[in-house]
Amino acid sequence: MEPIVLWQHKWGLTFHIPWYLFLGGLAGGTMTVACLADLLTGSQGRLQRFAKAAAYVTVPAIVLGGLALTFHLGKPERGIAFPLFFTNYQSWMTIGGWILGAFAPLAIAYAAAWYLNFGRGFRVSLAVIGAPLGVLMSLYTGFLLSAAWVIPGGRWYVPLWDNTYLPVLFVLSGLSTGVAAAGLGTLLMARFSGPAAHEPMEVAEVASLTDVAAIIVEAAWVYLFFSALKVGTTGQQLAYNLVTGSDLGPWFWWGFIATGLAAPLAVSIVQQLGKILFHAEAKWVFGLKFLLVLAGGLMLRYVVVWGGDLKTPLVFPPSMWPVPGISGPPIPGLGG
Amino acid sequence: MAQAQAQTTVPYREAGGPQGKAEPARMKFYIDVKRCIECGGCEVACKNENNVPPGIARIRVVTINEGEPGETNVAVPCMHCSKAPCVAVCPVDALYNRPDGIVALNKETCIGCGYCLYACPFGAPQFPKGSAFGARGVMDKCTYCAGGPEVAFSEREKRLYGSNRIAEGKLPMCASVCATKALIAGDAEEVANAVRQRMAARGAGGGAWGWDSAYGKGL
């Protein structure tokens, strides 16, 4: 007898959660690279401009992401007042509420410190907290989906949201999209700062190479993730077929793998060849690459959320359903 | 206050049971796929008894292998898990286990995030599909006809959660109306006894549970 496969649609029906996961992960990435660049390069380093651009990009990303998160709720007013309502500290949503509640003001303060020239001492003190908090922000978006640890027995009922792989994947994607967004911000800041502005090519090249490294690691992790799904439980195999097959396949292969991973790497290779052979460089090539990375990161979130509509199949007969908390030998289907 | 009111209405086992002491009953459903005929009586009775809004199904009958030999029907309500994943993930503790094992919902604290929907293996949490100004509302689920944390039998409880048959000493409406008694409800011990009797009547062996049709005679 075939298992019962349940489908449930909620987070994938509107743009809110995919965009929140994308913007939240991106903001975590930009904050991390901004703080690291600020801390590691000294007050006169060329990456200071990169850090400044990254700090500026973080603010709209986290504000828009936070709005998307809040307004997906059935009762947004209760979400805004989360310190009063969120009482279950086992839940990643509660933990995430506090991470977001700490991250957003810090990101705004850090950007303000850049804009108002508060002095490096103050900025560095924010950056020391901001770098790990940025990683935590990206990491939590993964754990939000795959919070298996709160479930007794470690069982989670959305097979695609594997907690072994998803949080790390979201951190890697957050870093790659964060570097891309910061690189794009650096180019745009130079573009609109007038002819006397700095030359951003060196900085963009550093960002581009960093992104290449992040994309290669991310691609390897995606390979491990889907290899594990392919040989996993029945539910994981169904999830693998759903994502890589005909249903979500075009979004996964063209939207994420081709646009977000393969194309940026190809652009980088062409760019390096052009530089070596013809000594040619163009800002728009960097811009194109960064945009591709961002589009791929967004599509990854969409595919992961859409794939979450598939639940772990219920085997037949119901007497074999693993009702949580009922162990036993039991009364099949009923428990002790 | 409202919680305390609800706790006074939980059913108790008689003293002298297997544990030898009075204790809260542990309320459970059992679904007998050998008896379900897909009449839909449980779905209709639930909606009628609890004024369930359109688009919400607190219980639904799933058909497997429809139109083929071996077609089977299964009613799927909330299974009221003892260690419920929905309770574990709910950030605002809107879901909680009552002393009698019923997984209850407090709509006054639910934020409508949908986390429980993804945590539940049975698809029990339900959400309205949308309303004026894009508001999506809070979660709805099977209450085991036990109302909510409001004062029992109050108008507010009736409006938010439906009836409170458990406080009246009755069983959930879906199980009460099931013509073939495919869906039975009650204290786990009582339900287990009924199931044992059925198993004995059908003869010992895996066939009593559907094992034969599911996995062949070899198991």
Tell me about this structure.
The complex is a heterodimer of chains A (336) and B (219). With 336 residues, chain A is mainly α. Chain A contains eleven helices and no strands. Chain A has helices at 16-40, 47-71, 76-80, 82-85, 92-115, 120-145, 166-191, 201-230, 234-244, 249-278, 283-307. In chain A, helix 7 runs antiparallel to helix 11, helix 8 packs across helix 9 (234-244) and helix 9 (234-244) packs across helix 10. Chain A is globular and about 70 Å long. Chain A starts with 15 loop residues before the first helix and ends in a 29-residue tail after the last helix. The model of chain A is unreliable at 327-336 (pLDDT under 50). By secondary structure, chain B is α+β, with helices and mostly antiparallel strands. In chain B, the strands form three sheets. Chain B has a two-stranded antiparallel sheet. Chain B has a two-stranded antiparallel sheet with strand order 2-3.
